[in-house]
Amino acid sequence: MIDDRLANRSRPAVQARGEDTRRRILETALDLFAAQGYEGTSTRQIAEGAAVNLPAIQYYFGSKEGLYRAIIDDICAETDREMASVAPRVRAALDAPDTPRETFAALLGEVLETFVVLVTSGTQVESRRLIFARAEIEQTPGLDILHENGMRQIFDPCLGLLSRLHGKPTTDREMTMRTLALIGQVVIFCNIHKKAVLDFNDLDEESVRLMKLVVREHTEAVCRAALAAPARG
To answer: What is the pLDDT of residues 2-55, one digit of tens each?
Structure first.
């Protein structure tokens, strides 16, 4: 009985250590994959950087690909958490047949502003941005998951809102192009070449505030033009 009580008390501590080890491996791997690419990073480098033995990676993730996919899952989960503040209201507005056009405009601005927060905040934000860029170039495992998540959480809501604002179907090519242009004004700040034209490297609080302001004002200008025209469809 005493042994059972001791075992029950120690179990949470063991679990906490295991979670700490798993998290350390993930964080180390994220930085290395972002800096060196999937093929250029070895599990031995990850183990050494995380201060764990090599079998720990297999124990927690099964393989190098399993570890990479766990990182992708983490990034997608962070996207889901950030967009959760606005996603239900977007769905409700799009599902209702009588939603005012002004509501679509306001929600579109909010989605894009939330997207700004997503790409500029949180831990290891620079590594997360580099992972996206490398995944596109290197066609790494999990790229399809990143695309699906981005479509579901960012592109599709923006396309739906913009299409309803213009009174056009989401299949309209013009709506697709306009949506890409709106999202692109946020994505451009993730480009590493921004450092060559901006007078700062790190996205500090004031820089993020200014970015959100610019994106919001640009989006509002687009929406005002759409609202000034009669709805079609």
So the answer is: 566 545 555 565 565 778 999 999 999 999 999 999 999 999 999 999 999 999
- 104: tokens are 């679509």
What's the predicted TM-score (pTM) here? 0.84
Residue 73 has which token pair? 């899952």
Q: Which CATH class is domain 65-228?
A: mainly alpha
Counting residues of the chain whose pLDDT is more than 70, the rounded percentage is 86
Could you give the 3-state DSSP secondary structure of residue 1?
A: coil
142: left (phi over 0), alpha (psi -120 to 50) or beta: left
Q: Which CATH superfamily is domain 1-62 in?
A: Homeodomain-like (1.10.10.60)
- Contacts of residue 223, defined as CB under 8 A and 6 or more positions apart, other chains included, come to 104, 105, 108, 109, 165
Q: Where are the domains of the chain?
A: 1-62, 65-228
Residue with tokens 């766990």: 70
The encoded tokens of residue 152 equal: 């579901």
